[in-house]
Amino acid sequence: MSHLADYDAPTESSVWYAKLKKGDILYFPANQAIHIVCQADGTSNIYTRRAEYSLGSKPGTWSLYGDKVVYTPGEEDQGEENFGDLTNSDYPITPLSCQYNDKEKPAVNPCGIFIRRNVFDDRCPWNDCGDGLFYANLPRMRSVFPSLTCKDILACPICYGWEFAKEDKDIMQDIFTTIRRDGIIVSKYSLRERSRRWWHRWNSIYRRRQQLGLPLEPYI
After folding, report:
1. What is the pTM of this model?
2. Hey, how many other C-beta atoms are within 10 angstroms of the C-beta on 154?
3. Distance between CA atoms of 159 and 7, rounded to whole angstroms?
4. 207: which residues sit within 8 A by CB, 6+ positions away?
């Protein structure tokens, strides 16, 4: 990386950047950009690369899942030798000092709630999401989130988080499970029990919206 040494490094007044480590996520409010720390050696010698948002955690991009911002490594992140290659990505690696000034420092490993409010105007970036729900069996859904594919309407993984969405799928499949009894296919549960589980599911979504600070109007 000797040919990158000509760039000015962050000043000693910014030594808190020395706490950064490879893989950390930085949010720059001026242009609402997400950068990934590609190199950090405990000093001010720090390099980052901008990453774009994507659905479904595509390699080399960042995704939003409830209160988490997740970066999925791509080919550009494999191997130290790639750090010096300024042409192997749409967004080349640059020194951190080129991205910020002392008046507007980036947020380090920001919460997903913060990113949703500041980047997406407090809305789900997924056009197919309606009030935190989506139909999991649509072709587009199957391609983006194959592990959530089913015939039910599920909690949105972007709004509520990946783990919550997977649990919601399990709950829905359990509620509508059928069994064969006396040669007849019937519901696994009685109507009362199914209603109780259905209520519990909606109550869980309501409480999750409270945790994440999402509007409660659709669920009141």
Report:
1. 0.78
2. 25
3. 40
4. none
